[in-house]
Each structure stands twice: as structure tokens, then as C-alpha cells.
Amino acid sequence: xxxxQTGFYEIARIGDEQVKAFVPNPLPPKDNLDIGxxxxxxxxxxxxxxxxxxxxxxxxxxxxxxYAYIRREAVLSSQIEGIQSTLSDLILFELEHTQGIPxxxxxxxSNSVTAxxxxxxxxxxxxxxxxxxxxxxxxxILLSSGRGSKKLPGEFRRxxxxxxxxxxxxxxxxxxxxNFVENCMSDLERxxxxxDDEHSILTRVGLSHVQFETIHPFLDGNGRVGRxxxxxxxxxEGLLTExxxxxxxxxxxxxxxxxxxxxxxxxxxDWEAWLRFFFxxxxxxxxxxxxxxxxxxxxxxxxxxxxxxxGRFKSSALLVHQAxxxxxISTLKSISIETGLSIPAVANxxxxxxxxxxxxxxxxxxxxxxxxxxxxxSILNEDLDSWNNGSLNHQRTNRIHT
Length: 402
Hints:
Blueprint: E1 7-14, E2 17-24, H1 35-58, H2 62-80, H3 87-94, H4 103-124, H5 132-142, H6 178-192, H7 201-215, H8 222-236, H9 248-253, H10 255-268, H11 271-310, H12 314-326, E3 329-331, H13 332-339, H14 343-355, E4 360-361, E5 370-372, H15 374-387, H16 391-400
Antiparallel strand pairs: 1-2, 3-5, 4-5
Helix pairs in contact: 1-11, 2-4, 3-4, 4-5, 4-8, 6-7, 7-8, 7-11, 10-11, 11-12, 11-15, 12-13, 12-14, 13-14
């Protein structure tokens, strides 16, 4: 691949050190991309997205899957940044049962959920454009509490940052000096809304991600915001009907390749290798989301059949089951509020679900008991367990038994 210039270097002073900070050229790339090299993987990625949209449309209650998948992604994206919380922790936190859960960790994961939901709501209900103002709003929510709350939430950085290394002089990468950030982000905003007929929408999403990560406009939270923007851009462009595709797991599993390919764009202008990696991630992640959607749909259908065959407290058990689909870790009181059933009726329905193995109590307490839709949680947790080698979730299992 021939060398292409994708930006220029500016000397930045950080403390006693002078370093070369990279300032990217505005998108699109000045040199033509090798469309032939990308065509096959780009076509497969578009096909995979189409399949995902079709499966989502056929689900009887697609919003249930969206609820679960948004939270699953928030956990995974946060774990990439070293925030040690699980899906069970998050759902328990939303129930206000936080005993034993590291508060900063679970609060930061909850912020990720709120940030994504805010972005989607602004675009869909307020008809607000995907722009720098919205990006800053998302960042402000993401860092509204927890360890990043003092790192200028909702504001572009006013000081130099760097990635990797123990100091700027041995950093893996030094983003643009702070006085370039505003213009770089304005250029990116213009590109997101431009009529770039030369490149497909999916290609533009991939190019935009590299540009955002290269600018690194915030003091903290850039990785999480950058990953959220992929999903928001896909939804904004109509390539996703529901926010069901996230590349965090692909980036984590291939972390070394991810960083190498981002740097290959900056140093050599190798956009094609990055885009192939990005399209492969779309394909892999779409297929996984389709598989999870089908498995959850099959689980729900089979469990409803079991409840019908079991017969005991059938009507209350079905309503309790419906509530657990909405929130797979719950209490009798919260289910009573959700369903309108009395506490005794909820208890009878939950007892029926326990007897046929659908739900189980996870606290071993006599009061304020918490119940888990265990198989539902297990399906959502599979990949989270796999890249953690089970260690994190093993620790949590000993505590909350989900």
C-alpha cells in the first residue's frame, strides 16, 4: 500500500517535554480508496445489517431485546476501559439494590445507558441532528458522576492528552493540540452531514470513527463516546432500525489489531485495511446479535409453553414472566407495581416459575428477596464471560448468584 498523507504534525509542549502531536486532514481522504478491494466485505456487511434489521422487525417485542442489548453493550464498553461491573450489577443498581457493588463502577455503566438513550431520543423524538452539540451532551451524561466527573464533562479538552505510554515522550499516539480540537470536530461534523457520493454510508461511518478517535476531543471517555457514535450514526443514517449493533466485543477481542490499524491510517494512510477490519466487525457483530435475538425469542416462547402446561397460577405466572422479560432481575414489589397484581399474587406466580426452573431467588433472604430470570441473563452474559475468562463474573456470582 503506497504512503498517503492523512495529516500533519504540530509540536506540542507537555510539561518539560516537546512532542509531535498529529492533526488529521479533514475527511474524506484526499486519495481515492481502493473500492474494488473493499467491495466484497462492504457488501457482506450491508447484507448482515439487513438481516439484523429483518430479524428485529419479526420479533414480537423488539423493544425487550433493545433494552437488554443496550445494557449489555454499556457493560462491555465500560469493561474495556477497566470499569469492573457486570450486567447483573447494573440491573441490581437500577433496582436500587447496590449492596457490595463498587458504586463508581456501576454508576459509570448506568451513565453509559443513559447517554445512549439520550442520544437516540434526541435524534428520534426531537429530530435533533447528530452534531457536536449532541456529542457533548452525550459526553456530559457519560461523565456526570463517577471517576471522570472532574474531567470537563460535555466540554472539548483545553489541554494536551496522549494515548499509551507512561509520559508524552513514550506515548503510543499524541492527538492534536487543544487549539486544533474545535476546528477538527467542526470538520468531522460537516463530513457526517455531507453528501459524499463517492463512498457508501457504511464506509463513511468507518472513516468517521477513525477521525473521532484520532482527534480524541475529550479528556476522558473518548473510547466509550466513539463506540456509541458508531451505533448512533448507523441509526441516524437508517442502516439500523434499532440500536442492536455494537462493535465493543470485536474491538476488545482484536485490541492489538484495532490500535495497529488506527495507527496505520495515521502513519501510512492505509484506510483500506482499517475498513476491512471495520466491515468484518459489522458482519461478526450482526450475526451474533441475530443469534442472541433468536435464542431469546425461542427461550421466551418455550417458557410460555411450560407455564401453560404447568397450569398452577397460570395467569399470574404469565404476568410475572412478562415482567421478568422487561427486567430479568427483579423483586416482588417491583413486579407488583409493573403488573398491578397484589404481592401475594406475584408471590404465587413467582413460586410457579421457580418450580419449573424459569426463575430463581438469588439472595437467600427471607425479606426483600430478589429473583433472576437465570437463562435470560446467562444468554446475555456469554460473551462477557468469554473475554474475561470468567474471572470477573465468577467473583460476582459468589456474591449475587445470578
